[in-house]
């Protein structure tokens, strides 16, 4: 029976089902047959005594001269050498097999080999090799030599099919209607231990000697399915039997009174090659000859799921599954012609689809293996009106997405949906976005514009990762290829001769997949691919285009990156002049105008951009430490200025990105815009409705300011971030963030450390001044309110500490929800435990005591 569902669980293993109910060299005999085509008869089939024992008999000492009712000895010399005994089976054989629990008083005629006239003219099994499968409840158990032993007396058992030689058996005709059944792994014969011709006689392997203990006849149960009883020729009332009707691995094999039970029915599976012409004759399906070298998704017609490697693994031996959706390389397969058959290789791993160990029993697992010359890795591809099917060359089994075991199907029904697939053309793709493009050479180096240049024609190299805009590339599918634009320059990855440069806005690349390796970038004009010159692994190695050769120097990995990370940037107009966003006159005052000006590298054109949450950023000017701000928070046409940071929406910006150019959108919905689209010195900057023009598009390139300014900005940002995050509250008992909480001194010290400042051994307000003064901080007393600066630390050495974040506001940790120091719940329960407060002359929350002084960083240390 087929399973009721194609999968049993989300990670169902891929298996193969039978292509043929009988092998190409099919069974054609109904009776018990002989090597000469004659049926075997026996005069002693009704001689089983009514008193025959109902329990499994214990094995006797070795005998082998012939099989007799009394189990005669093999030879006295041999008998004296053998000390091994079979374990007595004292229990009844199986409660499930009632026929083996009752005494056999007579032998039914049905257990006899059929008459010779019924098999006249049919072919012999002489010289043929089989896997002999127990046909019980869909089991995959087959006749197996324990541990693959090559020794005499090694036990024969039932074990799950694994394709090894220990499970393959060759039939050799004896000329008298019987067969000797020889194991391919050991060359030894299937033998009744000690010649014990009674129910319960053990079966093992032994050197072939022509004795009755090794002579077997076949009686067909259902020839069309290859099902048969295997009987002792001299005692055809005894059949090869699985002990107690068990199907478990390791189940012992024996001879037992023939009773027609499933424990005695064996399916002979011919070890053959699936012939293309045989498939055509049986099905009329067309064998596919084209498609060589093309990549496809193999999609089940039963449920629309795609063949894939479990977990996307690239490892040898990884199992195959069917899974939904996607389109990744782990779901793509390359078909290549090989000797009239097809090799199917996973595009991502480069490994071949193979039947495990060449297992020929339906339900055999499929996995990916290293490509070798082995028929288990070759497939016939056939086509019907309903889809494609795959037949394994070595096993004759059909590719199936059924995850449980089931009976083999006939070739005539090979169009069942669980064996039919569609082939959907596959090509690699990269989603639109920002990436670092890393060489497969394994040195962690990336495509990089030399020296972070913003000029056309600048060289492109393979360089160690530094996170700069020169190494970030915006990738977009244009419909006829991929545009790859550098974020630092707005120019595309291009080619000059054979050299790779950044240049212009029209060059596109194709994508190809190097089997088992990764993506290559194809210059569509020349057909050459992006290549690291000489496979040089050094940082700074040149990049060129070169004839495809499949090496790692031509394979590139795309890893998505954040296009805008916290840091210092120069912001230039996208209109082409390279002019920068500039604070007029490098003013330090609130309300100073923001404009365009020729790029000059001054701090007035440098902006520290940092995330403030929810996708928004704040821009801090490097000269004034003030923030990019919309005057009055206004609407269309409102002026853009700098202003002291206050955390309002007028100072919050998000971005969109297209072809390497940024558009900055204020929290009020208007975008950063150059008035009138004027690309000239002094052109005013405003906010305006989005219109997609270059007057609203901006380029960012990495820059820096003095280390002093950079660290102070980070310190202020850290303090603001803590105040704006209610997961952080006040608690002296857990003051170092064990539960997310801090007190006033641990908050300031932690934010200083996160910004890169050394705080020495400082842990409280008591020792903060001493440690910071030793590390470049100036101690100032009697400060006037208007003299406080962002980054200053307000200190009362015995009681409290806070940090200035603007000229008029500071961040401090004030106390828990009970106005106490300990015992509160984790996090800010009131919104005031850690908060932004107005600057005040007095430090105390409950007293008018003044601050002792201010610590200001001078940067000399």
Automatic annotation (TrEMBL):
Residues 36-142 are annotated as: Disordered. Residues 1-28 form the signal peptide. Residues 128-269, 293-424, 432-559, 567-701 form the Ricin B lectin domain. Residues 83-108 have a biased composition (Low complexity). The keyword Signal applies. PROSITE patterns: RICIN_B_LECTIN. It comes from the Bacteria. Keywords: Signal. InterPro entries: Papain-like_cys_pep_sf, Ricin_B-like_lectins, Ricin_B_lectin. Residues 36-82 have a biased composition (Polar residues). This is RICIN domain-containing protein. It comes from Parafannyhessea umbonata.
């Amino acid at each position: 029976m087929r399973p009721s569902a194609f999968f049993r669980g989300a990670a169902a293993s891929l298996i193969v089902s039978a292509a043929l109910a009988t092998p190409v060299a099919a069974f054609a005999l109904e009776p018990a047959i002989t090597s000469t085509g004659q049926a075997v008869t026996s005069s002693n089939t009704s001689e089983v005594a009514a008193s025959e024992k109902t329990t499994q008999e214990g094995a006797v000492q070795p005998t082998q001269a012939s099989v007799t009712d009394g189990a005669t000895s093999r030879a006295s010399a041999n008998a004296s050498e053998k000390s091994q005994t079979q374990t007595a089976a004292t229990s009844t054989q199986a409660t499930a097999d009632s026929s083996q629990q009752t005494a056999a008083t007579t032998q039914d005629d049905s257990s006899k080999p059929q008459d010779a006239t019924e098999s006249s003219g049919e072919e012999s099994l002489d010289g043929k090799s089989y896997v002999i499968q127990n046909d019980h409840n869909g089991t995959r158990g087959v006749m197996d030599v324990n541990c693959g032993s090559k020794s005499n007396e090694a036990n024969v058992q039932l074990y799950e099919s694994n394709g090894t030689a220990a499970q393959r058996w060759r039939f050799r005709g004896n000329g008298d209607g019987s067969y000797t059944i020889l194991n391919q792994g050991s060359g030894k014969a299937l033998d009744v231990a000690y010649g014990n011709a009674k129910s319960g006689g053990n079966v093992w392997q032994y050197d072939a000697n022509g004795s009755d203990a090794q002579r077997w006849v076949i009686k067909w149960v259902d020839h069309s399915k290859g099902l048969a009883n295997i009987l002792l020729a001299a005692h055809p009332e005894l059949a090869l039997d699985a002990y107690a009707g068990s199907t478990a691995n390791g189940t012992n094999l024996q001879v037992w009174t023939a009773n027609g039970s499933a424990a005695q029915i064996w399916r002979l599976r011919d070890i053959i090659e699936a012939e293309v012409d045989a498939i055509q004759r049986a099905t009329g399906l067309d064998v596919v000859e084209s498609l060589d070298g093309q990549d496809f998704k193999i999609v089940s017609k039963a449920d629309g799921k795609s063949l894939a490697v479990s977990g996307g693994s690239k490892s040898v031996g990884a199992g195959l599954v069917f899974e939904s959706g996607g389109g990744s390389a782990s779901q793509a397969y390359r078909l290549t012609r090989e000797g009239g058959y097809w090799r199917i290789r996973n595009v991502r791993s480069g490994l071949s689809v193979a039947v495990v160990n060449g297992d020929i029993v339906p339900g055999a697992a499929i996995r990916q293996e290293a490509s070798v010359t082995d028929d288990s890795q070759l497939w016939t591809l056939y086509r019907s009106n309903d889809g494609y099917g795959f037949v394994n060359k070595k096993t004759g089994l059909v590719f199936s997405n059924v995850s449980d075991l089931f009976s083999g199907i006939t070739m005539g029904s090979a169009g069942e949906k669980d064996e039919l697939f569609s082939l959907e053309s596959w090509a690699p793709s990269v989603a639109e976005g920002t990436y670092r493009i890393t060489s497969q050479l394994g040195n962690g180096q990336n495509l990089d514009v030399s020296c972070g240049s913003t000029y056309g024609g600048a060289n492109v190299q393979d360089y160690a990762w530094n996170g700069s805009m020169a190494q970030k590339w915006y990738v977009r599918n244009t419909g006829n290829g991929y545009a790859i634009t550098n974020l630092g320059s707005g120019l595309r990855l291009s080619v000059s001769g054979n050299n790779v440069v950044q240049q212009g806005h029209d060059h596109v690349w194709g994508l190809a997949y190097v089997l088992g390796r990764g993506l290559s970038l194809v210059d569509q004009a020349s057909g050459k691919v992006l290549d690291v010159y000489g496979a040089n692994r050094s940082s700074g190695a040149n990049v060129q285009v070169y004839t495809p050769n499949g090496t790692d120097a031509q394979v590139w990995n795309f890893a998505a990156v954040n296009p805008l990370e916290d840091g210092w940037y120069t912001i230039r107009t996208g209109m082409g002049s390279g002019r920068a966003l500039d604070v007029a006159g490098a003013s330090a005052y609130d309300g100073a105008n923001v404009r365009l000006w020729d790029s000059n590298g001054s701090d007035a054109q440098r902006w520290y951009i940092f995330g403030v949450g929810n996708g928004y950023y704040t821009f801090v000017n490097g000269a004034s430490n003030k923030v990019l701000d919309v005057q009055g928070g206004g609407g269309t046409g409102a002026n853009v200025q700098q202003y002291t940071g206050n955390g309002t929406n007028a100072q919050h910006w998000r971005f969109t990105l297209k072809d390497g150019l940024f558009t900055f959108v204020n929290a009020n919905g208007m975008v950063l815009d150059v008035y009138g689209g004027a690309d000239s010195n002094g052109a005013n900057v405003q906010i305006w409705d989005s219109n997609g023009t270059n007057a609203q598009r901006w380029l960012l390139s990495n820059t820096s300011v003095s280390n002093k300014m950079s660290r102070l900005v980070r310190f202020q940002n850290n303090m603001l971030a803590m105040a704006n995050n209610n997961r952080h509250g006040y608690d002296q008992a857990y003051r170092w963030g064990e539960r997310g909480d801090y007190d006033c001194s641990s908050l300031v010290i932690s934010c200083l450390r996160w910004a890169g400042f050394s705080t020495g051994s400082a842990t409280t307000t008591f020792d903060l001044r001493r440690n910071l003064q030793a590390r470049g901080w100036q101690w100032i007393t009697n400060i006037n309110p208007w003299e406080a600066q962002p980054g200053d630390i307000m200190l009362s050495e015995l009681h409290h500490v806070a940090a200035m974040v603007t000229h008029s506001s500071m961040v401090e940790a004030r106390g828990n929800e009970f106005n106490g120091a300990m015992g509160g719940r984790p996090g800010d329960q009131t919104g005031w435990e850690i908060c932004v407060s107005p600057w005040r002359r007095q430090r105390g929350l409950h007293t008018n005591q003044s601050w002792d002084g201010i610590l200001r960083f001078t940067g000399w240390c």
